[in-house]
Write a structure and sequence with these properties.
Layout (H helix, E strand, L loop, with lengths): L2 H7 L3 H7 L3 H40 L6 H22 L8 H15 L7 H27 L6 H22 L5
């Protein structure tokens, strides 16, 4: 183990931090936070995919097609795993999502699955859509916070916006289509 690795992995690194903060340590912490934000963002987007699929399967079930029951149960299990992983990622030293943001996402999911078989189609769609809007909002905030310090180069900034930010806008438009 090299000197740098030993310094970063030692328990006294936190104690030394306030006394002897170095540019390398500061960059390491910023990079670690950026990676954590990215991981949370990817997990949130994966969660949104599962919830969109769950919305479709539940609407089919509520519409009378009982053949979707196994798909609903599988998706509920996958979503539960994603929430557990999201909680694990968010319980680090620097919380990426505030406790309120996480609880809002979790409460949205609990509202959906609580007695979902007795919801009407419109109500179920609205519950899912509201949660998906919350997820898209959280994802956009995370992405912007990660990318806001990335570059001052206009060409690279444009590429970042086209690669990350514009697709998030499109995602938020597709998940919040109102029923008429």
């Amino acid at each position: 183990m090299g000197q740098a690795e030993h310094f970063f992995s030692s328990g006294s690194a936190k104690e030394k931090d306030s006394e002897t903060s170095t540019p390398a340590l500061s960059l390491f912490k910023e990079h670690s936070l950026r990676i954590n934000k990215h991981d949370v963002s990817v997990t949130i987007l994966q969660l949104s995919r599962f919830i969109q699929r769950h919305r479709g399967a539940v609407l089919a079930m509520l519409g009378g097609d009982e053949s979707f029951i196994s798909q609903v149960q599988t998706l509920q299990n996958q979503i539960a795993v994603q929430y557990e992983y999201l909680q694990y990622l968010n319980n680090g030293e620097a919380k990426v999502l505030s406790e309120d943001e996480y609880q809002q996402l979790k409460l949205g999911w609990m509202t959906i699955i609580q007695d979902w078989r007795n919801d009407d189609l419109h109500q179920s769609f609205e519950f899912h859509s509201h949660l998906l809007e919350s997820i898209a909002r959280a994802s956009r905030q995370l992405t912007e916070s990660v990318l806001s310090h990335t570059t001052t180069n206009p060409t690279l900034q444009s590429r970042i916006e086209n690669t990350y930010l514009h697709p998030l806008d499109n995602l938020s438009k597709t998940i919040s289509v109102p029923i008429k």
